[in-house]
Structure formats: structure tokens, C-alpha cells
């Protein structure tokens, strides 16, 4: 595949040029941005089993990580503070290391079946407070740490992206078997996947067993 490069003649490099392409922002789009968690924002968070958290390091390298748990897993500590449990993962710690370098974070809360989403921006701190972690236990297992977010901006995001993508529409669901398993993809990209189907199936089964053992 030929390498693509943006034609500099068509690159947008300043805000004035960018805004000239669009109509003026509707007043409500500006006014809807709140500095605290309203009753509606809190209700949305309590219903949400899934969020994405965006972070950056000091060099501007960005990362987005999914976080999921039972409904209401994010603790609302007060109208300006949230706590997110950090569950077992692959131990790359990309999000956590970024927060140590640059505490600014962006959260996107998603509720299955809802086309609108909730966006929260703020500053994050990592904590091992045992009382807080104990309140986030699942299956009698507390997280090793929590991400506490001091909220600076909160606003609802409209449904257009989810409606364009038909994300929740079963008629648009895709067959996962049409692509290789995640293990095969990673092995193909690194050390090489075994050509023997039985050996590959065994590796996939081992991953499923690991999911069951290490989810919490």
C-alpha cells in the first residue's frame, strides 16, 4: 500500500481557517457545558457500565483506554469528583503512566442502547486509599488503585455518531468469526501464529480461561 501524505495545499493549520468551514456554534452547545455533575449527569454515570478515558504524556502522545464493569462502577464522590477502579489488565499501564506525567483526562460515558453519551473532562490523581478501594470490590477483590477525577467540564454529547454507525442495531452487527481471534492477530504481528489449527484453538481457549481467572 502506497504511503499517504496530506497535501499541504489543503491542510487546515489555524483555527480561523477551521471555523470558516462551519456555521457558528449554537448558543446551547456552549451553555450546556457545566462545571459540576448535575443530577442528570450523575444519573447517567450511575447507569453506565462502560467508559473510555483519554490521556496524554508530556510529549503529547495520546492514548484512549476502555474501562468496563457492572453498571454504576464509577463512584460519584461529590458533585465535582469521580473515582474509577483500575481492574487487572495487561500491565502496560499506559493510562496510569500518562496521568502521572499529565493529569488532564477526558472521559466518555456510554450506556448500551443509548445513542447520546456523556463527556467529562478534568484532572486525575491515582490513589491507593484502602477505604475507597474496598468500596469498589467485586467478587471480594478490591482494585489495586483508583483513578480519582476532579471534574472541570461536563456535557451531554448528541446522538449523531451512534445513529450514523447503527452501533446498537442488531441488523448491523458483524460476525466476529470473519476476522482472526485477538491472539492470532497479535501473534501474526509479533512472533508468528502457529499454522496448526488445533494448536491455535488451544491458545484461544487458554485466553478464555485467563479471562475467567483474571477478570478481577
From TrEMBL:
| Domain of life (superkingdom) | Bacteria
Quote the InterPro entries the UniProt record gives: Pyridox_Oxase_FMN-dep, Pyridox_Oxase_N, Split_barrel_FMN-bd
What Pfam families does the entry give?
Answer: PNPOx_N
The Pyridoxamine 5'-phosphate oxidase N-terminal domain, residue ranges: 38-158
Q: Which NCBIfam families match?
A: PPOX_FMN_DR2398
Q: What is this protein called?
A: Pyridoxamine 5'-phosphate oxidase family protein
Native organism taxonomy? Bacteria, Pseudomonadati, Pseudomonadota, Alphaproteobacteria, Hyphomicrobiales
Amino acid at each position: 500500500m502506497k504511503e499517504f501524505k496530506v497535501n499541504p495545499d489543503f491542510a487546515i493549520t489555524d483555527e480561523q481557517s477551521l471555523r470558516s468551514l462551519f456555521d457558528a456554534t449554537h448558543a446551547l452547545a456552549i451553555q450546556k457545558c457545566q462545571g459540576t455533575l448535575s443530577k442528570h449527569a450523575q444519573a447517567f454515570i450511575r447507569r453506565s457500565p462502560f467508559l473510555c478515558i483519554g490521556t496524554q504524556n508530556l510529549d503529547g502522545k495520546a492514548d484512549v483506554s476502555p474501562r468496563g464493569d457492572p453498571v454504576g462502577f464509577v463512584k460519584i464522590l461529590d458533585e465535582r469528583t469521580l473515582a474509577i477502579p483500575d481492574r487487572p489488565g495487561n500491565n502496560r499501564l499506559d493510562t496510569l503512566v500518562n496521568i502521572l506525567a499529565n493529569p488532564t483526562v477526558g472521559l466518555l460515558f456510554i450506556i448500551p442502547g443509548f445513542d447520546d453519551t456523556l463527556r467529562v473532562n478534568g484532572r486525575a490523581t491515582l490513589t491507593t486509599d484502602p477505604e475507597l478501594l474496598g468500596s469498589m470490590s467485586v467478587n471480594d477483590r478490591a482494585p489495586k488503585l483508583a483513578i480519582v477525577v476532579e471534574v472541570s467540564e461536563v456535557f451531554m454529547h448528541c446522538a449523531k455518531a451512534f445513529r450514523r454507525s447503527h452501533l446498537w442495531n442488531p441488523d448491523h452487527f458483524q460476525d466476529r468469526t470473519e476476522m482472526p481471534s485477538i491472539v492470532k492477530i497479535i501473534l501474526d504481528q509479533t512472533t508468528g501464529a502457529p499454522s496448526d489449527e488445533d494448536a491455535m484453538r488451544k491458545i484461544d481457549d487458554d485466553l478464555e480461561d485467563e479471562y475467567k481467572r483474571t477478570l478481577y
